[in-house]
Design brief:
The chain has 227 residues and is α/β, with parallel strands linked by helices. The chain is built from six helices and ten strands. Strand 7 and strand 8 form a beta hairpin.
């Protein structure tokens, strides 16, 4: 049986949306949607909330059967720290206590449109492959080869020749949505491992990971459609 750890990062201070991870979304803290989905899948050995917020244990522990084994240290709680550093810390803390996992998962605390079947299907795909990273992805709606950048308020094409080509000349491109990811534990337990990737593609209407107020408003509209 595959032993999976899922980490839900939830820093208490967020700049673009105040207290974003705990802000009410249709009547309950938005992080609770991620907690509930992770629980409903029944595929995770442990669900770890990585947070520096002191009151989380009292708020969520009894109702969600989540183990708050340790808090995120202050040095890993600023916006300059990458998430992978947070994941390494969590994995190492469990390793110190002789608790090991086959797969390490990440689930955004602000992904209310993700379904439990997304995680279950992604886990099935990941288990059958020999790659060591799975990312939630979504397809770009337009060819990125025809993108522009701005200079002095003017649009400048990245590649002028691509502007004349029809869409069918370009192969589809994908981006990591930021909703979830999975890693084989070897990336954390062994040094100098190379990353190789596979994906689980999300439909665009369920691929919103909330970073700013515009994302929040869009998620509200899409959530009403979903449910």
């Amino acid at each position: 049986m595959t032993k999976r750890l899922i980490i839900i990062p939830a820093r208490k201070n967020s700049k673009r949306i105040k207290n974003k991870n705990f802000k009410l979304f249709f009547g309950k803290p938005i992080i609770k949607y991620s907690i509930d989905i992770a629980l409903k899948t029944k595929i995770f050995e442990k669900i770890h909330i990585s947070s520096d917020a002191k009151n989380l244990k009292n708020k969520f522990n009894k109702s969600n059967k989540i183990d708050f084994d340790f808090e995120r240290p202050k040095k890993l709680s600023n916006d300059k720290v990458g998430l992978f550093e947070v994941f390494k810390y969590v994995v190492n803390q469990y390793k110190i206590n002789q608790i090991f996992f086959d797969e390490i998962w990440f689930l955004s605390s602000c992904s209310p449109l993700i379904l439990k079947d997304d995680l279950i299907k992604a886990a099935s795909i990941f288990k059958k492959t020999n790659v060591n990273v799975l990312l939630s992805t979504c397809k770009y709606s337009q060819p990125i080869e025809r993108s522009f950048y701005k200079k002095n308020k003017k649009l400048i094409p990245l590649n002028k020749s691509n502007q004349k080509k029809n869409t069918q000349f370009f192969s589809p491109k994908y981006y990591h949505t930021g909703n979830f990811a999975a890693f084989k534990s070897e990336l954390f337990y062994k040094k100098n491992k190379k990353f190789n990737f596979i994906d689980y593609e999300l439909p665009i209407l369920r691929s919103v990971d909330i970073d700013n107020i515009e994302d929040w408003k869009l998620a509200e509209k899409l959530f009403n459609r979903k449910f």
